[in-house]
Model the fold of this input.
Amino acid sequence: MAEKTENEISYLIRGAIFKVYNELGPGILESVYETVLSYELEKEGLNVRRQVTLPIFYDSIELESGFRLDLLINNKVIIEIKSVETLAKVHHKQVLTYLKMSELKLGILVNFNVVDITKGIFRKVNGL
Done:
């Protein structure tokens, strides 16, 4: 079986996000969405890693305690989960920074605390 592309993975992620949102609704803790979304993505046959440490490289050395990616799917796609009243510009920039630092091409920022989940999903690309 051929390895899935970022876009194929993204399609499965969107479907799982809709399923989780329709089941749980808005306004729950981010950790709950992370757990349930992980489960749904694993049911789709995807490799899901939670709270993946992304090291910081500065001045040509690796420093301790970098960032934590909420979810890393098939070692290709980052998912950053929020459950906030309003996404701030920094949330969007955070995903772009994660992509740049990890040299990955696709990130998905999702805010589950919305009335319409289609308005809570944002694709972020790094040279895709």
